[in-house]
Amino acid sequence: MRLLILTGRPDCLGENDVPISNAFRRFGWEVIFGEITAIGADDYRYFTRGVLVPANGEPYHLGSAARGSRGVYFLDECQLIWVTSAPPFIVARDVWRMLWLASQHTTFVNSIEGTLFLETKHALGHIVPKVNRASSYISNDFSVLWEHYRQSADQWWVAKPPSGTCGQNVFLLPPNGPNVRAILQCLTGNADAQSEFGGLVEREFIVAQNQSGYGLGGFKAEYAILEQFIPEVAQGEKRIIVACGQAVAWHGRKGSPDDHRSNIAQGAKPVPVDLNSAEIELAELIGRKLMEYGINFVGLDMAYPYIIEFNLINPGGLYDAKLASGVDRSDQVTELIISRFQKHYHS
């Protein structure tokens, strides 16, 4: 049996590449580390460059280079494909389209369509019950978000891009904050800037003639989310890994005292935590809902009773949970995934 892991750097394996590949090899599988940026087609049969690692090879560690047989491998020669890195923006549209076409004949752990449309903060309202998510506003119009902020004079908010990762460009907005207007302008692309002529009344005609409906330099508006701040976050978020609808690994995140974000990528540290029955029930509810869209492996960020977001492509947590607790749950994940897709291997 053969697993293809599509990753960004086969020469520097990441936090999902390592535990997943080690576990599948313990179960007797061959593993190929394929380059997500090297997807191609030979008469519409899809392939990638990669490294075939034998089942009896040495276990890998974070940052290891994949060692084995380098070559070109066809996706339809693998029983299972796991995407652990998103392709760079410049090739993303082509890569995702080819992967979707390949998925019509080969099994993916997380469906391509589910990954593309649900790996975004837009999807929270579709997947998460209303009582378990913060109220939010999404727009690429600065004035819409600014007006919502001003209407709630005593409310704390979080502003962020809907497709951002790793805590990038996430801002905590206090009531009557002096920089809030500038932050919301920045997140929406500064598209409300009048023009090089300025915004004085006597220049409005010139401005209107030169904006072409899109502002200075053409269409620049970017989407942003204005989300009510959840006080429970201050008590600490938990990252929960859910595989095939079951909560299998989790850890807390201890952020820096000088940063409101608790992302590991922003310097937070994984710490051991327990999950109570209500937290497990909520995590598995979300996991089962995502399975309806072909998503079988997800990392949830929870500050109970709220789901902050979910991560589908490369959700840190399996590796960090082992660091925090000393317990490796990768074999349990692998058993669930193999059992889930076993019928496809023999069809």
The biggest sheet amounts to: 6 strands, mixed
The termini sit apart by 13 Å
The total of helices stands at 10
In total, how many beta strands?
Answer: 15
What would you call the structural class?
alpha+beta
CATH architecture of the largest domain: 3-Layer(aba) Sandwich
CATH topology grouping of the largest domain? Rossmann fold
Look at the structure and give the mean pLDDT.
88
Quaternary organisation: single chain
Query: What is the succession of H and E elements?
Result: EHEEEEEHHHEHEEHHEEEEHEEHH
As residue ranges, the low-confidence spans are none
- In the CATH scheme, the class of the largest domain would be Alpha Beta
Give the number of domains. 3
Strand % is: 15-25%
Shape: globular
Query: Radius of gyration in whole Å, from Cα?
Result: 22 Å
Helix content: 25-40%
Give the SSE layout.
Blueprint: E1 2-7, H1 17-26, E2 30-35, E3 40-42, E4 45-53, E5 69-74, E6 80-83, H2 89-102, H3 112-118, H4 124-127, E7 136-139, H5 142-151, E8 157-160, E9 171-173, H6 180-187, H7 204-211, E10 224-228, E11 238-243, E12 246-254, E13 269-271, H8 277-291, E14 297-303, E15 306-311, H9 318-325, H10 330-345
